[in-house]
# Entry
Amino acid sequence: MTQTQRGYVLADQEGQAVWFLGTLSIIKAKSEQTQQAYGLHVEIVPPGAEPPAHRHRHQDEALYVLEGEVSIRCGEQEWRGGAGTFVFLPQGVPHAFQVEGSTPLKILIITSPGGTLGFEHFVEEMGTPAETNILPAPSPPDMEKLQRLVTKYEIEFVELP
# Structure
């Protein structure tokens, strides 16, 4: 049996843990494990964090809030949600989010389709292996590396309307 023909189970803190742009990302499924259908990871984001607005040129992104509060913009739409909130962000549409409140945001992120340019590979390549399953100490990103990788993974930083 190949890897894609075998089921598996991972507990809450299990998976490949990566410190990624100030977050803790735990990769649960890579594209290679889903026959290139999708990648899936859980991301823990510190309070107040606001990643830059961006768009994925060839992937849809779905978020499911497990813990915390978040404000989300997708094109001209805006939403706010807490645990149990599902958000669909279509490919090509600029989007951004901000963690609200004083507790970290824990979200499940699914990007589809998968493939060699799957978002989980961007997380892996941009990040560093997490030494522990806690948020990393804040530090500025390596902007040269970030720009190179967003180009490689066909992600664009954009302004929201």
